[in-house]
Design a protein that fits this description.
- The chain is mainly alpha-helical.
- It contains 19 helices and 5 strands.
- Strands 2-4-3 form a 3-stranded antiparallel β-sheet. A two-stranded antiparallel sheet has the order 1-5.
- Helix 11 runs antiparallel to helix 12 and helix 11 crosses helix 19.
Length: about 450
């Protein structure tokens, strides 16, 4: 039975990561108001844009030591951490291209990331007369609908740009291909060199599925689930958060604010991912008794219940993201600063007790909180949205209707459904904002201490 149960768990876990799913679609839409609520960010002087090559040339020796410390920290603190091969250790020297190549390899990110200089424009804002950057110069992904719908403003070294725009833009960047193809069974040369091992779950042949183990944190499942699917323990958002946090603090301490805040945005992405319950719970809405019953039927040759359960979990995950994205994008386009979701993410009333971001916060605070909210989140989706979107296994969200806008659909639903959905998503985004600000406060304190 254990082997069969394993396949149910893993299929449910990755039904969402097999497609273009993310925890939140376009993190920047939430990061702008979340961080604008901090005077130390919103009122900060504009910062000077700097190329990655310039940063590496100035700080190569310090970065060599920093990345050695980071590797030691990960080995000591991240369960089941796959050590970085010694051959990938960062060393100074060489041409700018060689230095960049070694830095990217030491970070173990997709070498296809161009790491160009840009900020995202707010939906609805005029970009007339401004230089823009094609979405293909921002992401490595072949299918990136949210990026294709965004407008990116080109920056050049020496430009002055708002600190808020730098960090908020960077919060979405890890979804642009940074963690794609890193496993040794992804068919990429860098995946074979990086030492992460085989992809723990999901289809390694599917592009976007390969990033899931870095963006999800299944830290609070039942003992039975772990017994059936121990590979679920191999999730690594903690590794990414600490790495980017340390690089951000170092860059700020050494007077490289552009890269300090860009690295900070990268760290925030993984923190914000874990505020989405479908990234912290493998089977929201599917209790262990039901799971065992589905498993028993599967053993008897009745496979349809398993297939249906997987589709429903996937559809609900994607429904939450679809609604959040379209509602927030619509609010920006209408310049509606009073939208309930925008208000929630900038609401500082939930910040009490979240002033400091500890090294174990991703595991012990954020994902624990989201995991506990998973069941209620799933119920609201089931009760608020039309049956075909969340309870019909014949419907595949994102494929049956590729242009679906659930915010528009819900606006035609009864007020009780709209209110329930608004309240649930606003609650999650309130956590998104509070944890984002806690991280930034800790980063500012850390960078000040190091000067």
């Amino acid at each position: 039975m254990t082997r069969k149960l394993e396949w149910i768990v893993v299929a449910a876990a990755l039904s969402c990561s097999a497609g273009p799913a993310a925890a939140w679609v376009n993190h920047t839409l939430g990061a702008w108001p979340a961080l604008a609520a901090m005077p130390e960010i919103n009122a900060a002087p504009a910062i000077r844009v700097e190329t990655l090559d310039a940063f590496l040339a100035a700080e190569a020796r310090g970065l060599e030591q920093l990345l050695q410390r980071e590797e030691a920290w990960a080995k000591a603190n991240v369960p089941l951490y796959p050590p970085r091969p010694d051959a990938l250790a960062f060393t100074p020297g060489g041409t700018p291209a060689e230095l960049r190549q070694r830095f990217v390899a030491a970070l173990r990110i997709n070498p296809g990331m161009k790491l160009n200089l840009f900020v995202q424009a707010r939906p609805g804002d005029s970009v007339s007369g401004k230089a823009t950057l094609p979405w293909t110069e921002v992401t490595t992904r072949r299918r990136a609908s949210a990026a294709q719908e965004s407008v990116f403003l080109r920056l050049r070294e020496g430009d002055r740009v708002a600190l808020l725009d730098v960090v908020a833009t960077a919060t979405d960047e890890p979804d642009y291909g940074m963690d794609i193809g890193l496993w040794d069974d992804n068919g990429t040369p860098y995946g074979k060199a990086y030492g992460f091992g085989k992809q723990p779950f999901g289809n390694p042949a599917l592009e976007f599925a390969s990033q899931a183990p870095f963006h999800m944190g299944f830290f609070h499942e039942t003992a039975m689930v772990y017994k059936a699917a121990g590979f679920l323990r191999r999730t690594y958002p903690e590794y990414r958060i600490h790495l980017w946090q340390s690089l951000a603090a170092y860059a700020l301490q050494t007077a490289h604010p552009y890269w300090g805040w860009r690295f900070a945005g990268w760290a925030l992405h993984y923190i914000e991912d874990l505020t989405q319950p479908y990234h912290a719970s493998v089977l929201p809405g599917v209790g262990v008794p039901r799971l065992l019953w589905i498993n028993t039927l599967d053993l008897l040759g009745l496979h349809e219940p398993k297939k249906q359960a997987i589709t429903l979990v996937s559809n609900r995950h994607l429904s939450l993201e679809n609604y959040q994205y379209h509602r927030m994008r619509n609010a920006y386009a209408r310049h509606d600063a009073g939208d309930a979701l925008v208000n929630a993410v900038k609401d500082t009333s939930a910040d009490a007790g979240r002033v400091y971001f500890a090294d174990d916060a991703a595991r012990e605070v954020i994902s624990r909180e989201s995991n506990a909210l998973a069941g209620a989140t799933d119920r609201v989706l089931e009760q608020s949205l039309q049956r075909k979107y969340v309870s019909d296994p014949a419907y595949v969200l994102g494929e049956t209707e590729p242009e679906l806008d659930l915010y528009d659909v819900l606006n035609k639903s009864p007020p009780s459904a709209r209110e329930a959905m608004t309240g649930m998503v606003a609650g999650l985004l309130r956590n998104f904002g509070a944890h984002s600000r806690a991280f930034v406060r800790s980063l500012l304190a850390r960078s000040q201490q190091g000067r």
